[in-house]
Amino acid sequence: MTRQVLIAGGGIGGLAGALACVRAGWEVRLYEQAQAFAEVGAGLQLGPNATPLLQGWGLGHGLAQVAAFPERIVARSSASGRELGRLPLGPRCDQRYGAPYVTVHRSDLHALLLRAARAGGGVHLHLNSPVEAMAEVPEGVQLSWADGRIVEGDALVAADGVWSRVRELLLGDGPAPPTGHLVYRTLIARADLPASAQANEVAAWLGPRLHAVSYPVRGGELLNLAVIVQGEPPEDFRVWDAEGLADDVQQALAGCCSALRDLAGAATSWGRWTLCDRPPLSGPQPMARGRVALLGDAAHPMRPFLAQGAGMAIEDAAELGRCLGPVQDLALGLPAALGRYAMQRWARVARVQARSRRNGEVFHATGLPRLGRDLGLGLLGRRLMDLPWLYGYRPQA
Ligand SMILES: Cc1cc2nc3c(=O)[nH]c(=O)nc-3n(C[C@H](O)[C@H](O)[C@H](O)COP(=O)(O)OP(=O)(O)OC[C@H]3O[C@@H](n4cnc5c(N)ncnc54)[C@H](O)[C@@H]3O)c2cc1C
Fold first, then answer.
1. Can you give the pLDDT at residue 383?
2. 224-238, 305-319, 323-337: least confident range
3. Helices 12-23 & 106-120, crossing angle to 10 degrees?
């Protein structure tokens, strides 16, 4: 019996979902709105909760070729550049969690997933296909497009991101609102930077009312730098390229140390993202309904202050494959399996969403809370920064 799942969205979550479903014995038809598969944006951190899942899909070697393996995460004061605390990574992370902590260019990870989806068979990829409508029908789920195309599958996975059309049709709970943060992102050739700025580390520069994150990607060739400030969303906040962003960044960093300002000064171009999220999930309901499941940002858009949005999408995908694998009875077994997927995922994702929000407050603290943060990191840095509940998670066998 061929069991067919439709996937809306071909980002990191959609492609990871496709790989997991194919491995679980399902045929996949994936529909991406863009005219070409590509990822905009810059870098991603992937913790040892996500990397073993990629390794399990046979992507460990490919990942090692494009990723960087930072030796530590260092929290610094954005005002002085002083180190506040550190978490060793490298071999210590491997020993503790049995998997590496890596940093990778988003398009490199996306290309890796895409190659695997194309190579394995069983995944049919369709570009230029912005899903317009969906309907549950007695034997399955239908997707349709503005040009009149209609397809039917046994199940539907919505991996169409923070502004998910499928979520809107299924739950009607309105768009994810802006959080009040703007992210400026750039990539800099590391060879152009002074040796002092070439450390193989994830640096989180914590300020009052802003923070910045820098780390190597593309095997260390490039440095990813993101500067996160508090601010009102621009009028068209879904557009990420705009004029004059370098000036905005330098203005935002005016009170910061010269090391951070010089780093930003070395950038030749910037993109700007308006962050949007939803409150932490309060139950499994939004993640599955009937024959439809939500995955990644469509299900739980989160602030990137724990660097786990893509990691959660990859974990979702692994859990989805595990739940769909044994399904034979499509009428009853399939909705039950998707319900199980939602049950397995929601509480963990909610915890990550909540922690991401809290990190944002801590990273941007002012006054006494800022002093307390800096003191705490100095005394207990490693204990505060190591998160066994997060990094040690393995989906249930
Ligand atoms: C500044 C920043 C830094 C981040 N850093 C990290 C990090 O370090 N680590 C980490 O794990 N995560 C990080 N994240 C989060 C991570 O980028 C996202 O959580 C992750 O990319 C979500 O993947 P997704 O596939 O669910 O959604 P998306 O990547 O948004 O993919 C959705 C796809 O669906 C397509 N689509 C949309 N609508 C339709 C439609 N109607 N029909 C068909 N296709 C459609 C889109 O074109 C897109 O290809 C960061 C995010 C930001 C903004």
1. 94
2. 224-238
3. 30
- Nearest-CA residue for ligand 1 atom 19 is 309
Read off the tokens for 372.
Answer: 């307390």
pLDDT of 145 reads: 98
Pairing relation of β-strands 292-294 and 4-8? unpaired
Q: Write the pLDDT tens digit of every residue in 223-261.
A: 999 999 999 988 887 777 777 799 999 999 999 999 999
Task: Name residues contacting ligand 1 (CB within 6 A).
Answer: 8-14, 31-34, 44-45, 129-131, 159-162, 165, 183, 185, 226, 273, 296-298, 304, 307-311, 313
Is 101 known to be catalytic? Answer: no
Coil, strand or helix: which one is 178? Answer: strand
Ligand 1 atom index nearest CA of 313: 26
Q: Average pLDDT, stretch 168-187?
A: 96
Q: Which of 31, 215, 391, 393 is labelled catalytic?
A: 215
d(CA 29, CA 17): 11
Percent pLDDT > 90 in the chain is 92
Residue with tokens 């203005």: 251
Q: Among 160, 165, 308, say which to mutate for ligand 1: greatest number of ligand atoms within 8 Å of CB.
A: 160
**Nearest ligand 1 atom to alpha carbon 31:** 43
